[in-house]
Amino acid sequence: MKMEIYLSLLSGLVGTLIGGFITWITTRYTLSRQFKEERKKLISQERKSELIALNSVKKEIDFNLIEFSNIEKLLKENGLDFIDFKANSFLSILKKEKWDKHSDVIEMIDEIEFLGRLQAFYMNISHEITKQVTNLDRVRKGIENGLSLSNDIETYLDKCKKER
User: Fold this and answer.
1) What are the residues whose beta carbons fall under 8 Å from the beta carbon of 124, sequence distance 6 or more?
2) DSSP state, 135?
């Protein structure tokens, strides 16, 4: 009789231990899989944010290219090498709002090789906006650098789309 009680207790204990072990393994597997999925989702959201930022800045660069072209045309038509927008009651409408908004995200992207040139381009844009003075040489360099950056960003965005 005593032996039956011990066997009954022992079988209950072994059953509990085996059931607990199986539950532990299942829970561990499920949590591991869930954490991996959450990590993938987070990385995907960060990547999407980076691409949105780059696309937005590319559109702003394209806008600034149009403005630089208009300034170049104005200078050539009037035979000028230099223009002071304030003195002539004009206002240069170059923009850098998208860069100001997204530069922190873009500067964290490791793979972009053109980051230094992009930062330099916007430093020059900032100078143009602040001073409201420019010359033909600066305008031509702005166009050249802007075209190169716009193409580089487009290539990078296309590469990212293909990787999806």
Assistant:
1) 138, 141, 142, 145
2) E
Please tell me the distance from the alpha carbon of residue 19 to that of residue 13, in angstroms, as a whole number: 10
Residue 10 has pLDDT above 80, yes or no: no
The values of phi and psi at residue 110, to 5°, are -75, -35
Decide if pLDDT at 1 tops 70: no
Global confidence as pTM: 0.80
| pLDDT (tens digit per residue) in 43-71 | 889 989 999 999 999 999 999 999 999 99
In 3D space, the residue among 68, 72, 71 whose CA is nearest the CA of residue 90 turns out to be: 71
Share of the chain above pLDDT 90, in %: 63
Distance CA 137, CA 162 (A): 38
Do the beta carbons of residue 160 and residue 51 sit within 8 Å?
A: yes
For residue 72, the one-letter residue type is E
3-state helix, strand, coil in the chain (%, to 5): 80, 5, 15
Work out whether the CA dihedral 70, 76, 77, 80 comes out positive or negative.
positive
